Amino acid sequence: MNKTIETILDHRSIRSFQDKPLTREQIETIITTAQAASTSSFIQAYSIIGVSDQNKKDQLAEVVGNQPYVAKNGHFLVFCADLNRHAQIAEMENIDVIPSIESTEKFMVSVIDAALAAQNAAIAAESMGLGICYIGGIRNNLEAVQSLLKTPDYVVPLFGMAIGYPAKVNDKKPRLPLEHVYMENEYQQDTATFIKQLEDYNQVISAYYRERTDGKREDTWTEQIGQMLEKKSRMYMKDFVQNRKMDLR
Ligand SMILES: Cc1cc2nc3c(=O)[nH]c(=O)nc-3n(C[C@H](O)[C@H](O)[C@H](O)COP(=O)(O)O)c2cc1C
């Protein structure tokens, strides 16, 4: 155990922040740690848009499905897959990179890069005593987000991150048992073991919600995830991404 591991293991999403903006120095530290993450072939295929304009934050909070902590926090970041600067390299180097940039592979590279940068930022913020909440709700209405943030072709906003001084801290959410997610040498397909692990985990999650909500909620993990997956969501994504000239081949 060391301080880094303690910080990582102490994570829980924060959805209520004090009315205290981050300093420029805090923001720059967080972004610099994001940039220190590994990046596929050194491509650095992401951008981070910090939203400090309160009017824009209010509009974003509505667009993401009325999540008030998108408007009320210390700072709000939007992580974007970004191959726009790479498209411009083509002109500088007088070569054709467009067929490569417009591929599913490069889109995946940019999404992976952005996610790695974001998680570095999250851990850095948490190590500074701040709390974070990722906001996938950004993808509820990407047209609106795109027009608010003026993102060009080859850029897809992926998720937001609210950061700030916590006003309310929930209990940590227990994760799946390690044996359920970690396999050695080959994929583990033993259905009986798999189901047993899920049943045990369901008990843990049910107890977690019962405790957290004074008994008002006690759904299991498989119930919760099953209900979520029963509904299709954001089915416009492929069209949106392809309209931004990514994931085309
Ligand atoms: C990419 C991503 C998008 C998320 N989007 C939202 C969101 O829109 N709103 C929200 O309240 N939480 C959001 N979350 C937070 C998850 O709900 C949370 O991480 C999960 O329930 C586990 O809880 P914990 O972070 O407290 O451990 C998101 C998390 C990730 C990684």
Explain the layout of strands and helices.
Blueprint: H1 3-9, H2 24-35, E1 46-51, H3 54-63, E2 75-82, H4 84-93, H5 98-101, H6 104-127, E3 131-135, H7 142-149, E4 155-164, H8 178-181, H9 191-212, H10 221-230, H11 237-243
Antiparallel strand pairs: 1-2, 2-4, 3-4
Bound molecules: flavin mononucleotide (FMN).
Task: Tell me what the structure shows.
By secondary structure, the protein is an alpha+beta fold. The protein folds into two domains: 173 residues, NADH Oxidase (3-Layer(aba) Sandwich), CATH 3.40.109.10; 41 residues, no CATH class. It contains eleven helices and four strands; from the N terminus they run ααβαβαααβαβαααα. Strands 1-2-4-3 form a four-stranded antiparallel sheet, with helices on both faces. Helix 2 crosses helix 6. The mean pLDDT is 97. Bound molecules: flavin mononucleotide. Flavin mononucleotide binds next to strand 3.
How would you summarize this macromolecular structure in one to three sentences?
It comes from Mesobacillus persicus. The protein has helices at residues 3-9, 24-35, 54-63, 84-93, 98-101, 104-127, 142-149, 178-181, 191-212, 221-230, 237-243, and strands at residues 46-51, 75-82, 131-135, 155-164. The chain has a 4-stranded antiparallel beta sheet, sandwiched between helices.
